[in-house]
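W.,

You were right to be curious about this one. When I first looked at the sequence I had no strong expectations either way, so I just let the prediction run and decided to look at it fresh. Below is the sequence, 251 residues in total, followed by the output.
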Amino acid sequence: MWNIRPLRADEIEVRAQIVNANGFSVLLYKNARADMNVLDETFGPSNWQRRHLVVKNNLFCSVLIWDDEKKEWIEKQDVGKPSNAEAEKGEASDSFKRACTNIGIGRELYTAPFIWIRSLKDEIDSSSGKPRLSYKVKIHVHRIEYSEKKISFLQLADEAGNIRFTYPQGSGGNAPQEPQTQNQGQHNTKQGQQREGVLSEIVDFVNAKKIPPQAVSEMVHQKFKKQSTDALNVGELKALLNALRQAYGSR
């Protein structure tokens, strides 16, 4: 219906999702600025508009596109979820981004592979009892290519320019350094070991079933009302693993 181009590498953001002592998974996503830029570029600034509506305490966003042939507005709508920082602002932005995905902007990101990045020395902080990714770690999309509206090639790099992930595997790029062994004394609590074990099971299952990262994120929010697996305790992680097995079948 509309000829909407795929997102460029500089329009895609990267967010850490699952973190354990050996590495971390990341999710590709777009922000509202990218959506507005594509809307302006594709339809013209005066040929689209957005509206927000509260239904049963849920904030919906409608994005309307002017169809010059039909002489009418075409509407796409979706609901948002609040963010941890600014709940109302985050919910409005999220509903807008979701509505834009319904139009077709950034929909190709749903074809991304499960992205697991091996950690390097000092990238994982376990001093609090559970692994956390250092705030100094910044990963970005270095290069991305598409074929038939699906991601056919993807490279992620860090701020130093090291290629940290390449898809398909073996298709080029510099191999990252071998991660350094973390101080095992920091992981000797029973709960920490259990959490790391369950996270590893989740990663293995998601990889085996080729579950989209967005689907995992949606399940975490819907089931536990939290933004990422990093906020889940051991019991919740086990419940997440069981829910994934029920939804996608046991191995």
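Here's what jumped out at me. The first helix runs from residue 32 to 43. And, maybe more interesting for your project: Helices lie at 32-43, 87-103, 190-209, 213-224, 234-248.

Coffee later to discuss?

I.
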